[in-house]
Each structure stands twice: as C-alpha cells, then as structure tokens.
Amino acid sequence: MSIKMVKTLFVSIKWNIRIWIKNKFSQADLYYVVEQANWAVDEVAKDVLEYMDINTQIISSSKFLNKNALIHFGSLNAFLQDKNGYKRNKNGVIVTCFHIVDSDSRKNELKNLDSYVKKWHTSCTITRNKMISLGISEAKIEVIPISINGKNYAPCNPEEKKRRRADMLIDEETIVLGYFQKDGNGWGEGNVPKLIKGPDIFCDVVEVLARKYKIHVILSGPARGYVKKRLNEAEVPFSHFVFEEAKQVADLYKVIDIYMVTSREEGGPRAILESMASGVPIISTKVGQAPDIIQDGVNGILVDIEDKNALINAFEKIINTESLRERLTQNGLKTAREYDSERIAKLYNEKLYCR
Description:
Layout: H1 3-24, E1 30-33, H2 39-49, E2 56-59, E3 70-73, H3 76-80, E4 93-96, H4 110-113, E5 117-122, H5 125-133, E6 141-143, H6 158-167, E7 175-179, H7 199-210, E8 215-220, H8 225-233, E9 238-241, E10 258-261, H9 271-277, E11 282-285, H10 290-293, E12 301-303, H11 308-320, H12 322-338, H13 341-353
Parallel strand pairs: 1-2, 1-3, 3-4, 4-5, 5-6, 7-8, 7-10, 8-9, 10-11, 11-12
C-alpha cells in the first residue's frame, strides 16, 4: 500500500470516528440530512426548522445514528448517497423529493426503496404524480410547498427602488428583469447550460425583447457563464451578484420590475414566492409548484413550457398594463403570506414528524 493510500485511509477513518462521536452523543429529536452543496436544499431546511417545536439538528450524513432516530433526508440526492444507511433505521425515514428529471436513471430505484421510507415529501403536485407513476405508495406522499421566509422579503417603495437603481447606474427608463436560478452545470463557471432550468429559452426571449425595450438583466448565484455569454453576445446589459447567504438575494428584488422563470423542470422554484413577497410580478412556465401557487392573471402569469412567444407576450402585458401590474403585485403579496415559513413548519410537524 502506497503512502498516499495510507494517508487517504487514515483521513477516512478519522472522519468516520468524528461522525460517530458527534452522532453518538447527539440528543436531537429530528435529524435533517442535507448535501451541504445545494444552496436551495440547505435554505429550505433552515427556514422550516427554525419554527419547529422539537429539537432539530442539520447534518450531512446519517452514519452511526441511533436506529430509532427520526431522520429526514432533505433531497433525493442526500437519500440515494446515504449508502444504505437508511436501511438501519427501525421506523423508516422521511425523504423529500423536489423534482424528478426524466433522464435520471435513478428514478427507477425509488419503487424498491419505498419500503424503507415512512413518508415521502414533495413540494408540488407535478412531482407527486410522477412519484405515483414510478410505483411509490400514494398514501405515503405528502405535498407541502417550499415556503417563504417573510422576515427576509418585503416590497420596496418607489423612492428606495429609484435610489438603489441609481447606485447600480440603471436609469428610470430601463426595465429590469430578474433571473436568479443556478442554470449552469457544476459549480465552476457554468458555461455548459443546465437545460432543465431553461437558460437557452430565457436568452432567446430576452434577445427578442431587447430589440424593442431597454432592458437590464439581474443575475445571481454561481455557474451563470452560459447566460452571461449569451447576453454579452446580444449586447444586453446585465449585472451578476454572488452572495455568501441566500437571504442577501432579497435586496436584488428591490431593483427589478419583473421576474421570469423559463424552466423545463423545477421543484419550486423559490423565486416564485420570493418575487410575490417582494412585490415583483412573476412570469413562470408551468413547472414545479408554479401551477399550484400561481393563478394565471391574478397573482402571476403562467405559460406553457418552452412557449417563448407566451413569455414575450406576458412580459409586454405587464409592462404596458398598469392595472395588471397592480393586480399581480397586490395578490402576490397576499399569496406569499399564505406560504410563510412559520405556517409551512406546522404542516411539517403535522404531516411528517408526528410519530
């Protein structure tokens, strides 16, 4: 055995001992397993667990946990990467599955793993129906939407919005379009598009709109290289921000006029409720929890997946119709309050964590 292999083995043993000690003496009522690589999954856990009336602990592995522990895997990846640790749990585990990508061959494993799961949780009806079609027990599935932390998001008054935009050198005539979802593969530059997020659709739509309107695009998050390249080529001005914490994105909603979701597949996205809570009109394809939350023309606008003309028309309707903007904004604020994290946490308690 080489010195390098010995060092690797030593690090692995040391890491496992550390986890064993941590879990052996932990006294939590609920262990929530996250990947510690997925911003959205980690933030969903933090938002909801803040309001739990039980002792909770967010962990990155269920190794060596007590067989009677209540374990919630915060994503399908976290569950499938557990290397059969869930099979040791006496009472079955809880698994959140936000969305199922049709090209993901792992989806065929779910039926065989159903017996190890006490409750399946998903955020939307679309994913629930996919899970049932894959052979997962319908009675075990609970639909509880991704929430919005109302403490972090709020509308911006016109004067503050004007000041913030001036600080970014954006004039009053410019229409600012928000697009915050991570849409590049991996965690590097993101030059290869993650097509389920629809960055190609977004860029195609913006290129058309920019010929008629003065547009500035606001991007956030890592791996946005593909979109930035397309916008540069089309000479569409944009700003890109990468933050340490998800809640910092809230400030970006204070400068945008419209938020657009162009995805082909989603579990949320969180941006739907974030936009509503920030008083920003939302346009979304019929993905994830968008059809569950958005009433077309009432609190947002829904369009069919890949329908670029519908996205363009929705944008123009909002920009050119003041009464529509006001209706979407006011009803969106009301909707966001219905999905506040404190209210959604009660559903977690009642439907997932009751023994």
